[in-house]
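Q: Got a minute? One more chain.
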Amino acid sequence: MADFRVVLVEPSFEESIGFVARAMKNFGLSNFHLVNPKIVLGPSGRMRGGHAQDVLDSIVEHRSLKDALEGLHLSIGTTAQSSYAASNLVRKPMTPRELGNVLKNRAGTVGIVFGREGTGLTNVELGQCDATLTIPAVSEYQTLNLSHAAAIVFYELHVTAGESSMDGLASERLKKTILGFLSDSALRSGIEEHDRAQLTRAFRNVLGRSAIRHREGSLLAEVLRRISEALSQTKEPGDSGTLSAVSETESGTRAWAGDTSRLPQRHDS
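A: Always. Here it is, folded:
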């Protein structure tokens, strides 16, 4: 069964913190993190927390969203704003029920990230997450109260939790390695920089929405590594530039190599 970390980004009202903690307690969640809160939790917030005082007492605070996402296997950013533009791949969300079904029979730590009460998460913050989620509502008024939205998400995850599983999720390091090999292959294939960035974001969406397993990720990384190697032997890239996704995974790639030691090896004739 997945272990969930609930993250609130820059909450402005202590009551919001209390209400979200109460909803967490209703559905058996306790891992509560805040990013740069704008208010100190006081009596009013604790009163809204009801019997979730233990959840409030265990809150972990961070100065940045990046720090709050550290150690997660999968991160899901919530948004009320879906995009109809084909180029905006960040705001292509799934529903809470779809997420619950994807995570059923998965093991790993999953972060659910909620934004500010008034403005939610920015595109940059959503871009730091593996996938996005929205709650379908009428077009006239799509934005839900923060704690109400949290309760709906927690409920859907609770009812689809089902049986426990040893089917572990791919680590963040492994997913970065996959994206690194993909970006490198695209670069060597002559794909333009803007299109490579879009490709990387689209593929990250696929990895996030599928909640890819560790074994699946290891196999995919090995295949992409071999493609990248084959391209490097047949065609040199037209420029010396590299994508940030590639450079970010150089150290992770070396560490990841041990994960694929049991994969079928290529035999050159």
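A: The chain has a mean pLDDT of 81.
Q: Perfect, thanks.
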